[in-house]
Amino acid sequence: MPKSHPILLVEDNPDDQLLTLRALESNNIINQVEVAVDGQEALDYLHRRGEYAGRSDRGPQFVLLDINLPKLSGIEVLREIRSTPRLRHLPVVILTSSKEDRDLIESYNLGVNSYIRKPVDFNQFTELVKQLGFYWLVINEAPEL
Questions:
Q1: Which of 30, 46, 59, 126 sits at 20 to 30 Å (Cα–Cα) from 5?
Q2: pTM to 2 decimals?
Q3: What is the pLDDT of residues 9-36, one digit of tens each?
Q4: What's the rounded Cα separation, in Å, for the pair 115 and 108?
């Protein structure tokens, strides 16, 4: 059985990282989760440069991307992903606490696959992650990167 593709979680808040990882684990999502803590690290991971120069060829199944990140914002990361031919079709889900309409509109203008506001309640968040995992890992078919 081939090894599953990882999920790339781009999140700078340690509490939100832990919450997301716990929600994935509690929903039996077995894919490895790679965590990038800022926009630059996410792009380094995706472009296999810097500390990620030697990583395997297996790109992520999808990206869970926060908008408010240090170094490069989630919008800038999304712009780079969509402008890179090899990454252009990579599914990207914005998972953010931003309530700014301009973030929502700009994300869709740049080709985000989904834009979701993080629920505050842990049970709602866990259910959301379960649904995301089921859709992006089981139902959706994505091209190899």
A1: 126
A2: 0.90
A3: 999 999 889 988 988 888 788 888 999 9
A4: 8
* Domains along the sequence of the chain with CATH: 7-136 (3.40.50.2300)
Q: What single letter denotes the amino acid at residue 87?
A: L
**Residue in 34, 37, 85 with CA at minimum distance from that of residue 63:** 34
Phi, psi of 86 (to 5 degrees): -65, -25
Helix (H) or strand (E) holding 132: helix 122-133
Please state, as a whole number, how many other Cβ atoms lie within 10 Å of the Cβ of residue 139. 7
Cα(18)–Cα(47) distance, rounded to whole angstroms? 25
Q: How far apart are CA 56 and CA 38, in angstroms?
A: 21
Tell me phi and psi for residue 127, to 5 degrees. -65, -40
